[in-house]
Amino acid sequence: QLQLVESGGGLVQPGGSLRLSCVASGSTLDYYAIGWFRQAPGKEREGVSCNSRMGGTYYVDSVKGRFTISRDNAKNTVYLQMNSLKPEDTAIYYCAAQRSPLCPISSADFRSWGQGTQVTVSS
Questions:
Q1: What pLDDT does 27 receive?
Q2: Which residues contact 117 (CB under 8 A, 6 or more apart)?
Q3: C-beta of residue 50 within 8 angstroms of C-beta of residue 34
Q4: DSSP strand E in 9-123: where?
Q5: What tens digit of pLDDT does each residue of 40-88 get?
Q6: 101 phi and psi angles, rounded to 5 deg
Q7: DSSP conformational letter for 80
Q8: Which residues have a Cβ under 8 Å from the Cβ of 54 and sit 6 or more positions away?
């Protein structure tokens, strides 16, 4: 059973940076598509980024050019580097995984989820 644990959230001023980590245990991430999602208070969960072995990398338009998803297979870890943060990036961020060579279209297709890490962008 794949387990995911996020870390790296916190309070940051607008324009600042954070790097979120998603550490996996129970299985190697080599054959998994990994997604980052976020949910702000009163809003629906939103897909932020996804990376898969065959399908490349995707970003929601609002974070393109600011966020970067990456993997360290040796550490079984996926990262989300977030630069030029804005107040509207404030949310709980979750990583999710699905054993698939391509990124699933729907968040409902991701079987494994972490517990989330809070990101707050405020002055």
A1: 92
A2: 6, 7, 8, 9, 20, 92, 93
A3: yes
A4: 10-12, 18-25, 32-39, 46-52, 56-59, 67-72, 77-82, 91-99, 112-113, 117-121
A5: 999 999 999 999 988 789 999 999 999 999 999 899 999 999 999 999 9
A6: -75, -10
A7: E
A8: 101, 102
Looking at residue 105, its pLDDT comes to 86
Please report, as a single letter, which amino acid is at residue 77. Answer: T
Tokens of 26: 């129970």
Count the neighbouring beta carbons within 10 Å of the beta carbon of residue 50: 25
CA dist 30 to 25, 44, 51, 71, 97, Å? 12, 29, 11, 9, 11
Token pair for residue 3?
A: 């387990």
Q: Could you count the other beta carbons within 10 Å of the beta carbon of residue 123?
A: 8
The confidence score (pLDDT) of residue 54 equals 82
Rounded-to-integer distance, Cα 20 and Cα 45, Å = 17
> Are 2 and 26 spatial neighbours (Cβ–Cβ below 8 Å)?
yes
Tell me the average pLDDT of the chain.
95
